[in-house]
C-alpha cells in the first residue's frame, strides 16, 4: 500500500512539475529562514556556557543613583572590590580582575598597535580557555610575562617556537622586553572574552603596594568564583557593608572635593548572563554584547515566514485538488476509506516537506555568508548538524508536515465520489479560511514594507543630515602624546604637504567632567582640549564672542569656549565673561565665546553641554587633516611618510571622518538590510500563495468564464472580474496594516532624539506597491483563463 502511495505521489509531482516546484521552493524558503534563526538563537544562548565553572562564575556590578534621580548601572568596578570582598566574604573562592588596554610593540624598525588585556595570574584556573603551551598556574606569575594566541604568535614570530621569545612593549615612555610564557587557544566565537594578548595585572600596579584609594576609580571588570553550593544573592548582600566600612575615607574625600554623592549598591551578575544583558553591558575588554530583542524579532520573522509558507502549501494543494477529484472518487468507490486517503495525503505532505528540507539546507549554505554579515556573526554550516539542533529540525519537520498537510487531507478525503466521477464536483462556499489567510499574509507584508521604508528614511536622515560642522575631506591620524609646545613644529611639517589645506588637534577619545557655575551649580559636560584652528577647520559658527587667540595669554591660560547647550544648562542670559569653576583643582575659567550646537556624537544621542580649552598644560593625541578639494587620495601617501618620520615609534593610523561618522550607524544599517530581506521574502512567499488562490478561483469559475466569453465578454473584462475580489482583499490588508504600522514605527522612532516625521506618502506608496504586485501575480492566471476556448469548459453541460 505504501509503495502504491509513494508511486502515485511521485507521478502527481511529475505531472504538475511547475506547481510542485513552486510548492517546494516556497516551503523551503520558509524552512531555510527558520533554520538560520535557530542557528542564530542557539549561538546567542550558548554564549559563555563552555566554561566548566560557569555556574559559579559572576561579575561584580554596581548601581548608583544621582541626586537628580538618575539611576546608572555598570559592570565596571575599581581595583579594591575584588581583593576586599574576597578577604571578607568566606563564600568567595577566588577573584579575577580583567581590563582591556593597548600597547605599542616594537620589532626592529617596525612598530605595531596591539590590543591587550590585564588579568590576574589565576586567569586560566578560573576560566576554561585551553592553554596550548605553558603551565596554567604559573604562566602569568612574572610581571613581564605575556601569553599570546596562535594567530598573534605567528604574526610576531612566524614559524619559530614562540615560547621564551621576547616582545618589546612600550611601557610609559620606554620599550621594555616581555617574555612569551604561554600560548592560549583561540577563543570560541560564542565567548564574551576574546583572547589576544594577556599581560599580568602586576605590571599595571607597578612596584607600589595596592592602596586603599581605588574604590571609586571604576575602570575594570571584576569576576568572582563562588564556592560550590553558595547562594550568590546571600554573598552579594554582604558587599555594601564592606564597601561602606573600608572605603569610608575615600568616600569622605570625594564628598569634600567633588561634592560626590555616595549612593552605590554592589551586586553579582551570573557570567553567562552578560552577553544578553542590556542593563550592565559588555565593556572594557568584553566583546559581542547583544540585545535579546534582536533574537525575539528575528525569531518572530522566521516564525511568520514559516507560517506563511505553510499557508501557501495548503492553498496550492487545495487549488490543484480538482485535478485529482476523479482519482479520489475511484478510490472511494473501490472501498478506500477516508482514513486511508488522509494517510495518503499526509504522506504526500511529508514527502514534499522532506524535499523542501533538503532544498532548505542548500539555501542555508548559500545564504549563510550573507546572514553572518547581516547578524554580525561567524556561524558555520557545520553547526547545522549539532545533535540538539537536529532534534529541533526534526520537530520543525513534523510540525510543518502536519500544518501543511492536515487541512488539505481533510478537504480532499471528504469529496463526494458520485459528483467527482460525473464531473459535477464544485468547490462551494465563500472560502473564508483561504481569504482570511490571504489577508493575514498581505497584512504582514504591508507591515514589513512600511517598516522597511521608515527605517530606510531614518537611516538616510542619520547619515545625510547637516551635522552643524563640515566633516568633508577630513582625515584623522591617531598619535602618541603630543605636548602643546611641540605642536607648532609638527603642524608646520604637515602643512608642507601641498595637498593639505589645514590641520588641527584635540586630546582624542571622549572626556567628560564636572565644574561649578553660578557659584553653586555643579554641571556635567563634554570636555575638549583643542588648538586655535579646531573650530575654523570644522567651520563651526560662533553665536557670540570669538575664537582662541594664541597672542592673548589669558585665552590659553584661563579662557574657554562653550556651546549653546552649555549656556542653556547653565541658565545664562549673557554668557560672555561668565565663570566656570573647576573647584576640584582650583582653576577658574572665563567664557570668551559661544558656538552653535553641533553633533559631535552620533545622532542617537542628544547634544550635550560642551566646553573647549586651549590650555598649554594639557597634551594632544589626535590630529585632524583637512585636504584640498579632490586631493585626499593623492595626499595620503605623503601624509603617511611625514607621520612615520614625526612619530617613529607610533603605528600609522588614518581614517576618513566621513567614514567614521557613517560607521556610527552600523546597527541601523544591519537592521535596515535584515528587515529589507525579510520584506522581500515575505512578499515573494505571499505572492506564491496568492498565485495558488488565483489558480483555485480560475478553476472554480471555468464554466462561468466560458459563458461570459460566449456572451461576448472581452479578455480585459474577464481579467478584471477575476482580479477584483483578490485586489479588494489585498487593499483591505494594507488598510489593516497601516494603523498598526504607524503605531509601531512611531514607538520605534522615539528611540532617536533626532528623527524623521511619519508621512502619509509611506502608507500610500505601500498600498500602491502591494496592489501592483498582487495584480501582476493574479494577472497570469486571469489572462490564461480568459484566453481558454469556452467550448472545452461548456461541452459537458
Give a short summary of the structure:
The chain contains 26 helices and 22 strands.
Task: Describe the protein's architecture and organization.
It is found in: Cell membrane. Residues 20-241, 448-631 form the MacB-like periplasmic core domain. The chain crosses the membrane at residues 21-40, 294-318, 349-371, 391-415, 436-455, 674-698, 726-746, 758-783. Pfam families: FtsX, MacB_PCD. Strand 18 and strand 19 form a beta hairpin. The longest helix has 38 residues, at 338-375. This protein is α+β, with helices and mostly antiparallel strands and 797 residues long. The model has no long low-confidence stretch (mean pLDDT 83). The protein has 3 domains: 1-47 and 292-425, no CATH class; 57-273, no CATH class; 474-663, no CATH class. The strands form 3 sheets. A 6-stranded mixed barrel has the order 3-4-9-6-8-7.
SSE blueprint and pairings:
Layout: H1 2-15, H2 17-45, E1 57-65, E2 71-74, H3 81-88, E3 92-107, E4 110-119, H4 123-126, E5 131-133, E6 145-148, H5 150-157, E7 166-171, E8 174-184, E9 197-200, H6 201-205, E10 221-226, H7 232-236, H8 239-246, H9 248-258, E11 264-270, H10 292-319, H11 325-333, H12 338-375, H13 387-413, H14 417-421, H15 432-464, E12 474-483, H16 487-495, E13 500-506, E14 512-517, E15 521-529, H17 534-537, E16 542-545, H18 553-558, E17 559-563, H19 564-570, E18 579-582, E19 587-595, E20 610-613, E21 619-627, H20 632-646, E22 654-656, H21 657-663, H22 666-700, H23 702-710, H24 715-749, H25 760-787, H26 790-794
Parallel strand pairs: 4-9, 6-8, 15-20, 17-19
Antiparallel strand pairs: 1-2, 1-10, 1-11, 3-4, 3-7, 3-10, 5-8, 6-9, 7-8, 12-21, 12-22, 13-21, 14-15, 14-18, 16-19, 17-20, 18-19
Helix pairs in contact: 1-12, 2-10, 2-12, 2-13, 2-22, 3-8, 10-13, 10-15, 10-22, 12-13, 15-22, 15-24, 15-25, 22-25, 24-25
Amino acid at each position: 500500500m505504501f509503495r502504491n502511495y509513494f508511486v502515485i505521489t511521485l507521478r502527481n509531482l511529475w505531472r504538475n512539475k511547475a506547481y510542485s516546484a513552486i510548492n517546494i521552493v516556497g516551503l523551503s524558503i520558509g524552512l531555510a529562514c527558520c533554520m538560520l534563526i535557530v542557528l542564530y538563537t542557539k549561538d546567542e544562548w550558548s554564549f559563555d556556557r563552555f566554561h566548566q565553572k560557569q555556574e559559579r562564575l559572576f561579575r561584580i556590578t554596581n548601581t548608583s543613583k544621582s541626586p537628580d534621580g538618575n539611576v546608572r548601572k555598570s559592570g565596571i568596578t575599581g581595583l579594591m572590590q575584588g581583593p576586599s570582598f574576597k578577604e571578607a566574604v568566606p563564600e568567595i573562592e577566588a577573584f579575577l580582575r580583567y581590563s582591556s588596554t593597548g600597547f605599542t610593540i616594537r620589532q626592529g624598525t617596525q612598530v605595531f598597535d596591539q590590543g591587550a588585556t590585564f588579568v590576574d595570574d589565576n586567569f586560566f584556573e578560573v576560566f576554561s580557555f585551553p592553554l596550548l603551551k605553558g603551565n596554567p598556574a604559573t604562566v602569568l606569575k612574572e610581571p613581564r610575562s605575556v601569553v599570546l594566541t596562535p594567530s598573534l604568535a605567528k604574526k610576531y614570530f612566524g614559524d619559530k617556537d614562540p615560547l621564551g621569545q621576547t616582545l618589546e612593549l612600550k611601557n610609559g615612555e620606554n620599550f621594555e622586553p616581555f617574555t612569551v610564557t604561554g600560548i592560549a587557544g583561540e577563543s570560541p566565537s560564542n565567548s564574551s572574552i576574546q583572547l589576544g594578548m594577556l599581560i599580568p595585572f602586576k605590571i599595571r600596579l607597578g612596584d607600589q603596594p595596592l592602596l586603599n584609594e581605588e574604590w571609586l576609580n571604576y575602570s575594570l571588570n571584576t569576576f568572582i568564583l563562588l564556592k560550590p553550593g553558595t547562594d550568590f544573592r546571600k554573598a552579594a548582600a554582604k558587599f555594601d557593608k564592606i564597601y561602606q566600612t573600608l572605603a569610608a575615607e575615600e568616600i569622605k574625600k570625594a564628598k569634600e572635593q567633588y561634592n560626590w554623592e555616595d549612593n552605590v549598591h554592589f551586586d553579582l551578575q551570573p557570567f553567562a548572563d552578560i552577553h544578553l544583558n542590556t542593563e550592565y553591558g559588555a565593556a572594557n575588554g568584553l566583546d559581542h554584547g547583544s540585545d535579546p530583542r534582536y533574537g525575539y524579532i528575528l525569531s518572530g520573522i522566521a516564525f511568520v515566514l514559516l507560517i506563511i509558507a505553510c499557508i501557501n502549501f495548503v492553498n496550492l494543494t487545495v487549488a490543484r485538488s480538482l485535478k485529482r477529484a476523479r482519482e479520489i472518487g475511484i478510490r472511494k468507490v473501490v472501498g478506500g476509506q477516508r482514513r486511508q486517503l488522509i494517510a495518503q495525503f499526509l504522506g504526500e505532505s511529508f514527502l514534499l516537506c522532506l524535499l523542501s528540507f533538503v532544498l532548505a539546507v542548500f539555501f542555508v549554505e548559500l545564504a549563510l555568508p550573507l546572514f553572518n554579515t547581516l547578524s554580525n556573526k561567524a556561524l558555520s554550516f557545520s553547526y547545522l548538524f549539532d545533535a540538539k539542533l537536529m532534534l529541533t529540525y526534526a520537530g520543525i519537520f513534523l510540525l510543518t508536515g502536519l500544518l501543511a498537510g492536515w487541512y488539505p487531507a481533510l478537504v480532499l478525503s471528504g469529496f463526494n465520489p458520485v459528483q467527482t466521477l460525473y464531473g459535477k464536483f464544485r468547490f462551494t462556499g465563500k472560502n473564508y479560511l483561504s481569504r482570511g489567510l490571504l489577508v493575514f499574509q498581505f497584512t504582514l507584508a504591508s507591515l514589513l514594507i512600511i517598516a522597511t521604508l521608515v527605517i530606510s528614511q531614518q537611516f538616510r536622515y542619520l547619515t545625510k543630515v547637516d551635522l552643524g560642522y563640515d566633516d568633508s575631506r577630513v582625515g584623522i591620524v591617531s598619535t602618541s602624546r603630543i605636548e602643546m609646545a611641540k605642536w607648532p613644529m609638527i603642524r608646520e611639517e604637515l602643512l608642507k604637504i601641498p595637498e593639505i589645506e589645514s590641520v588641527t588637534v584635540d586630546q582624542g577619545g571622549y572626556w567628560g567632567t564636572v565644574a561649578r557655575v553660578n557659584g553653586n551649580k555643579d554641571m556635567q559636560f563634554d570636555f575638549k582640549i583643542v588648538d586655535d584652528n579646531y573650530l575654523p577647520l570644522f567651520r563651526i559658527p560662533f553665536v557670540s564672542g570669538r575664537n582662541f587667540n594664541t597672542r592673548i595669554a589669558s585665552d590659553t591660560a584661563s579662557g574657554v569656549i562653550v556651546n549653546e547647550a552649555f549656556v542653556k544648562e547653565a541658565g545664562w542670559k549673557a554668557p560672555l565673561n561668565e565663570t566656570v569653576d573647576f573647584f576640584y583643582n582650583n582653576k577658574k575659567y572665563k567664557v570668551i565665546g559661544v558656538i552653535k550646537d553641533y553633533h559631535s556624537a552620533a545622532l542617537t544621542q542628544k547634544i550635550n553641554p560642551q566646553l573647549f580649552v586651549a590650555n598649554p598644560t594639557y597634551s594632544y593625541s589626535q590630529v585632524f587633516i583637512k585636504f584640498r578639494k579632490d586631493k585626499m587620495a593623492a595626499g595620503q601617501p605623503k601624509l603617511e611618510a611625514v607621520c612615520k618620520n614625526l612619530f617613529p615609534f607610533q603605528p600609522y593610523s588614518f581614517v576618513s571622518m566621513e567614514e567614521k561618522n557613517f560607521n556610527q550607524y552600523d546597527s541601523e544599517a544591519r537592521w535596515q538590510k535584515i528587515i529589507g530581506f525579510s520584506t522581500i521574502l515575505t512578499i515573494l512567499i505571499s505572492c506564491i500563495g496568492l498565485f495558488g488562490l488565483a489558480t483555485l478561483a480560475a478553476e472554480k469559475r471555468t464554466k462561468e468564464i466560458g459563458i461570459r466569453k460566449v456572451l461576448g465578454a472581452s479578455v480585459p473584462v474577464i481579467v478584471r472580474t477575476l482580479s477584483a475580489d483578490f485586489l479588494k482583499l489585498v487593499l483591505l490588508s494594507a488598510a489593516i496594516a497601516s494603523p498598526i504600522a504607524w503605531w509601531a514605527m512611531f514607538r520605534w522612532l522615539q528611540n532617536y532624539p533626532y528623527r524623521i516625521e511619519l508621512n502619509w506618502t509611506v502608507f500610500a506608496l505601500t498600498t500602491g506597491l502591494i496592489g501592483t504586485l498582487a495584480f501582476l501575480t493574479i494577472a497570469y492566471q486571469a489572462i490564461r483563463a480568459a484566453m481558454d476556448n469556452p467550448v472545452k469548459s461548456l461541452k459537458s453541460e
